[in-house]
Amino acid sequence: MNQRLGSNLTVSEKITKLQDSSCAKEQVSWARQISLNDLTGQKALLEFLINRRIVQKVDISSLDGIIFEILIESSYKIIKDDIKRYFPNGLFQFNASSKVDYQSLQNLLIQQKYQEADRLTQIKLCELVGLNNKNERNWLYFTDISSISSEDLSIIDLLWRVYSRDKFGFSIQRQIWLSSNCNWEKLWTKIGWKNEGVERRYPHEFIWDLNAPQGHLPLFNQLRGVQVLSALFNHVLWTQ
């Protein structure tokens, strides 16, 4: 994007550019430019976010996460107060009747605490298939995957995508896998689970921030082979 050209646009014109952008990198750039227009720009971003999430209720995407990420770091008290008022728990509002509580996962992802969120994701997946702290097994079999509902898997995936600028999530990993002709070795290299053909050591060799390769997170233990991840990538959710 031409930064000089962008600087000559009004806040309203920049909002239009932001809305029309399909690339997360461009969205981040436009949102940051708008936020630099002091309080006026940040109010415009907040109004745009409220319109998307509360008024129009469009499908949530990483665009909402990018705007939210910028606004929660605002130095203006009025912006921080309004964010807390309109989105007290984050961008996702969960059904109280859900059998799994995703708020703790949302909290970690908002703070970009990706390593903690990765561990919690595995715990939530185990909860979804009926495993808890009383079970000796704290990992999934490939036969467990079909018992995870499309709704729950979609929530986990969207949480990761929305709060990572569309960089992380199972659907991102699946897209890379498909584009690699379902070749697992190519997938491991592209998402950075292997470095020069050598598996990374957990946890210190993995990258726990947005500098990681596309699809780097969340992790899945491959010590028991690829069957679990294969079952996940072939879940009915992706074909609905």
Summarize this structure as a short list of keywords or feature phrases.
single chain, 240 residues, mainly alpha, two-stranded antiparallel ribbon, 12 helices, 52% helix, disordered N terminus, GUN4-like domain-containing protein, tetrapyrrole binding, plastid, GUN4-like
The structure class reads: mainly alpha
Low-confidence stretches: 1-5
The tally of strands reads 2
Order of helices and strands: HHHHHHHHHHHEEH
- Helix percent band: 40-55%
Shape: globular
Radius of gyration of CA atoms, rounded to a whole number: 19 Å
Distance between the termini: 35 Å
Report strand %: under 5%
Largest sheet: 2 strands, antiparallel
The number of helical segments is: 12
Mean pLDDT over all positions:
93
**Strand order, largest beta sheet:** 1-2
